[in-house]
Design goal:
two-stranded antiparallel sheet; two-stranded antiparallel ribbon; 14 helices
């Protein structure tokens, strides 16, 4: 696996990243906390308490800016790199980055994998990326997957976001194995059959307390991307994928992704969006998971497959994003990108402008032909401005009991019928 190292002088160095042993935990993605932070750390996007989602929302914000052709603030990038522990892992937030991480630091796979994707995209931080990938490989489970925290069972969401980190850094997930099992092997164990009474092609988050796999829309959207080897930022498929669920004794990962896309399509058909419920309350629109589903459907079958939920988001998601913050704007930018929609006119909202306003002013806008490219020239431009360079909410909700939300915001682990 090659990791790019860049400096203001520019150089592309191949770095071998060697994986090791161990095990992961329960996953989900963070989203903004509701309580405002009295002293928002310098360089951080958003003003809410970062305790549970600081690294997650910062990573999504930087990745979304890069996707939209914006060169992020070097201060914002430095905030993220400063959050890394010496072993390469990231926690949701460390109030004192100068203090050493210890056994009480809640490092996890989701924040680490998101940070990898963001820092790789903006460029100039090969050492940080290399160290983070090494840690992720060291905590891979024996089934080939990952859980939210080291030492816990694999789940579909965590495995998928780590796959995204691997593929984003040009690492083949099939070659990242533990006891002969790859991440794709682990993902397929969460895939359900096509029969409606058995899951209708969905993915489960992980087995319930009785060992049963139950369909989960959030895990399904994440797993479509994971099975396709896509990260948080995905392109629309060049050709339409399968439109129906097809059972097979041993489905390929592409087949499982097609089945899962059929499940999402059927689930979205009723209202044009996914729903969530909290603690016995009535079902509510789930904006974050709907945005994730748009990316998944477009990546699997083309932009047309995501037209209905995309239209619903364009009409309804602006208020949600304004209340939820940077990660929400980022998710919508990812949905726009995957469908070829202009993020600067998303149902009349300029998502890029709104995202930029939640944090330090960006350095500028990349040239049109290099806006999405991870090039040496782009990195050098960023490094000239700063000595630090620049570069699919899961588990935080589950680990800390916080409602946060690809892997992204407002994720809901409610079992879908």
């Amino acid at each position: 696996m090659n990791v790019r190292r860049r400096s203001s002088a520019a150089a592309l160095a191949a770095i071998a990243v060697i994986g090791a042993a161990a095990a992961p935990a329960v996953a989900a993605d963070p989203s903004p906390s509701s309580s405002p932070s009295k002293t928002a750390p310098s360089g951080l996007y958003g003003t809410t308490d970062p305790q549970y989602d600081g690294v997650w929302r910062q990573s999504l914000a930087l990745l979304a800016q890069d996707t939209a052709g914006v060169i992020p603030s070097s201060t914002a990038v430095k905030w993220l790199t400063d959050q890394q522990c010496a072993n390469g892992a990231f926690a949701p937030f460390r109030a004192d980055p100068a203090a050493d991480c210890d056994g009480k630091t809640p490092i996890d796979t989701n924040n680490t994998a998101a940070a990898v994707q963001a820092l790789w995209a903006v460029g100039g931080h090969g050492d940080v990326v290399e160290s983070a990938l090494g840690w992720l490989k060291s905590v891979q489970n024996e089934d080939g997957g990952w859980g939210y925290s080291p030492g816990t069972p694999s789940d579909a969401n965590s495995t998928s976001v780590v796959v995204g980190a691997l593929t984003a850094t040009e690492t083949d997930p099939e070659k990242v194995v533990k006891d002969g099992k790859s991440p794709y092997d682990a993902l397929l164990t969460f895939a359900l059959p096509c029969a409606k009474d058995k899951g209708a092609g969905a993915f489960a988050f992980q087995p319930d307390k009785d060992g049963k796999l139950l369909p989960n829309a959030d895990a399904t959207a994440a797993s479509v991307l994971g099975a396709l080897g896509e990260g948080l930022v995905a392109e629309a498929a060049d050709k339409a994928g399968a439109a129906s669920c097809t059972d097979a004794d041993k489905p390929t990962r592409e087949g499982a992704a097609a089945n899962a896309a059929a499940y999402l399509t059927a689930t979205l058909a009723k209202d044009g969006h996914l729903v969530s419920a909290l603690g016995g309350s009535a079902d509510q629109p789930d904006y974050g998971n709907t945005a994730d589903a748009v990316v998944a459907l477009a990546a699997q079958g083309g932009a047309d497959k995501a037209a209905e939920p995309l239209a619903w988001l364009e009409k309804n998601a602006a208020k949600w994003a304004a209340q939820s913050g940077p990660a929400a704007y980022a998710q919508l930018i990812f949905a726009a990108h995957a469908t070829g929609t202009d993020p600067r006119d998303f149902g009349g909202t300029d998502l890029v402008e709104k995202l930029n306003a939640t944090g330090p002013a960006p350095q500028g806008v990349a040239a049109k032909d290099t806006a999405s490219a991870n090039t040496d020239e782009k990195s050098d431009e960023k490094d000239d401005d700063s000595p630090f360079g620049v570069w699919w909410f899961v588990g935080v909700c589950l680990v800390f009991g916080i409602g946060i939300g690809f892997l992204l915001s407002n994720r809901n682990k409610k079992q879908q019928p």
